[in-house]
Amino acid sequence: MKRILIIEDDNIIAELERDYLEIDGYEVEIAAEGDAGLYLACNNDYDLILLDLMLPKVDGFELCREIRKEKEIPILMVSAKKESIDKIRGLGLGADDFIVKPFDPAELVARVNSHISRYERLISADRPMPKQQEIIIGKLKIQPEAWRVFLDDEEIKLTNKEFELLLFLATNPNIVFTKERLFDRIWGMDAMGDMATVIVHINRLREKIEKDSSKPSYIETVWGAGYRFKV
After folding, report:
1. Residues sharing a CB contact under 8 Å with residue 128, sequence separation 6 or more, in sequence order
2. Is 25 helix (H, G, I), strand (E, B) or coil?
3. Can you tell me the distance from the alpha carbon of 101 to that of 99, in angstroms, rounded to the nearest whole number?
4. What Cα–Cα distance (Å) separates residue 47 from each residue in 27, 61, 71, 226, 227?
5. pLDDT in tens, 54-79
């Protein structure tokens, strides 16, 4: 049975999330304070974390930063804050999605299912990769079946969304994609429709694969149009 950790100080919301997730077959644990949530997240095995932003003792942003040092599992931030800056900050710290309260519990469960399914592809990274299926562009090597990326023969750790975005661009080189097209292709129903999600993930990718992210060699911005992967 897959396990979910809910870090939420509002008992009503936490119990609502738990009830819907348990109906869908998940085992759920709840932490009402940030420090307790951090301890559980770092010392237990979960398949996904639902993380509120406004928490006593340690806020959700700091929790996300600390959890990301230890775990690669999906993190879905849940908050009543609607400002884009909060979404951008959360995604920039490594969250996989940002859900605004109030939300439809059925949609929350659908997003949880989707993120866990995508993450499960990552944990199969040790499968052998046929050489002919590698994508090699300059010093960048992408192994689609193994979900692994190498730069100068050193493995680069990407989140599942970062990998999907890179793979889509690299398998469609020299084609300009709008932010809307990328959002629809990579996130689909998994996010709220904020195009800042695409910008944040493009910037994070550049920081990881580009020698100089301000002068990208791989992912190029086409002003007024979108992004393209240069070969």
Report:
1. 146
2. coil
3. 7
4. 10, 20, 10, 34, 32
5. 888 888 899 998 998 888 889 999 88
